[in-house]
Amino acid sequence: MESKYDIVPGKSTTSKFSLKFKPTPIVFHTKNGPPSPKKIKLSNGKADLLKPSNNSNSNFGIKSKISIQEQKRKLPVFQNRNKLLDLIKRHQTLIILGETGCGKTTQIPQYIYSARIQNNGRIAVTQPRRVAAISIATRVCQELGNGENVGDTVGYMVRFEDKSSKNTKILYLTDGMLLREAIVDNLLKQYTVIILDEAHERTIHTDVLFGIVKKAQKIRDERKLTPLKIIIMSATMDVDHFSKYFECKAVYLEGRAYPVNIFYTKTLQDDYQTACVATFFKIHRQAPPDEDVLIFLTGQEEIDAVVHQIRLLAKDPEVNGPPVRVYPLYASQPSSQQICVFQSVPENTRKVIVSTNIAETSITISGVKHVIDSGMVKVRSYHPTTGLDALKVQKISQEQAWQRTGRAGRVSEGNCYRIYTKFQFECLQKTTVPEIQRCNLSTVVLQLLALKIHAAHFDFMDKPPKDSIASAFEQLKMLGAIEDIDSGKLTELGSQMARFPLDPRFSKILLSAPNYGCLEEALTIIAILSGESIFLNPPAKREQVQALRQKFYSAYGDHIMLLNAFREYTNISQANRRSWCHEHYINIRNITYAHEVRMQLADICMKCQIPTSSCGSNMDQVRKCLVSGLFMNVAELHRDKNYITLDKRQIVSIHPSSCVHGQKPPCILFTEVVQTSKCYLRSLTTISIEWLQEIVPDYVRTRNIKIVD
Ligand code: CDP
Ligand code: MG
């Protein structure tokens, strides 16, 4: 049962960042009667249904003060504990499906552990996101309640952070990390149980792991080694497709989902961000304070802006409503901050979480009664024809819309406000395209080659497009990572590149740095690029920020500007860094993270015996070094107007946030592409086109690039 509502009558004229913005009343058009529960359709031809028994009441929220042990017993999965354990014991491979929040990720590994199914081995549980791996490991450690710390029996391992020890029996790790472990030992012998969680997300790494664990299981059987148990867990997915690929049984854990009223906007919304804020205040003024709100938006910048806006507006005396606590939630957050979303808030206070799609399935927050769905998501997608790997905000799929809706029906009946019309919903794609079919494959192809697997012959569940595989091989050849495309044999350089948890273009830069005497500088730039932006850009303080940042500016572009800022940061004493960041509008979390990443990368460089070096103020050396890995990401000025990429002749523009915007440098190298109405390049370095001839003559020849000055 659905209804339509007005967010703002007619077109929105309110400026996004105006502090004068007042939420406009929303008109609801509710049809009679409560809606029936909307269940995500599941092809359960092969799935056994495990029902929760009636005496369990999962109606608890984080706000109720029941003990952690009691909370565990009330999870729907608890009712099926013995049946599940029996199935896991009997089957070498098993698919477990269940509604988000029913307890799969936190409970099932604990059940396996206490039944000692893992024997002397370890249980690995993969997660697509680092923040989920960290927060869930922390939670499970608490649940075990034996006074241990994370890193003892329960640990986690994510890129650039390892909290595990010899004693770790349940290890939550990102799918990317397990893939890296497979490079060291392709039979993954330290694990006796591998749980591939959130399989429906179909991240590139999970998709590759499907093939790797399947093969490891088979070989371990053939060689009579310790058997490997594989469990695939997921919210909702195409069971037939999965059980055919794994040739195994599937069970479906029925959760307890309450009906959710769905509201669509009556008119098209051209500014979903403002519409989300307006909808929030509509709810805020009417709903009791203990009803939490979850807003789905696309990325850090947008989320930070909305969090700020809600905090400001909530204090406005004209807005009637209880006090609010607003929490941002996105993947790049430090775990300490992310854990806050689970904390209870004071009485008579409204909790609102503003999240990316991370709260769709990876992280469940109890107590949410209202969901506001912007209908948008930020994804990375690659077009082999344009050669560009772009971050793009795009519409979600219907499958995602239902997942988001479901978040409102966890505790009791809830509401979901869709910031799009019914018609727009019907036009959405039914399912999400797996990442492997839309991303640049060069990293994965290189990792597979390090495992001595040629991607063209790999047992993918869904094969990536031939073009994408071909273009990945071509890229690796250009980078000098493989000897030839047919054999895919790694060169010495290629084997070293595979040791870095980085895009091959970035690892090539680090490995080329000794030739330019600038390893220190290259490490800094690559480390910063591996995280989220270190610069804060509050729109209300634009001019002030620009003036302050002047001293970091470089005519050579954004990468050198990052380097300048980081150099100054490291020169500040530890004690003064926080206030320095505050003064300079530098995101302290992100710069601290870059600092940590830099140390890890330096460590790998040391293991690869790359001599350390610094080029001081000779920026030409750094710029040339960047060209050695990113020569495929170069664009030149065309007719004094647009830029054209040299590789595939695409028309692009410089993003207004770049420090060389408006200066029209003749030739630029870029590391980020943002696609909106136009294709924008962000994070650039100006280079001289002749350098290409000097640094990558083969590339210039094969691509027939004309070097004219
Ligand atoms: O994996 P699945 O979606 O089935 O659920 P889960 O992640 O195991 O979560 C089960 C319950 O634990 C949910 O109700 C969460 O709210 C709660 N939880 C929590 O309170 N704190 C965490 N850090 C993680 C989960
Ligand atoms: Mg889960």
Automatic annotation (TrEMBL):
Keywords: ATP-binding, Helicase, Hydrolase, Nucleotide-binding. The keyword Nucleotide-binding applies. It comes from the Eukaryota. This is Atp-dependent rna helicase.
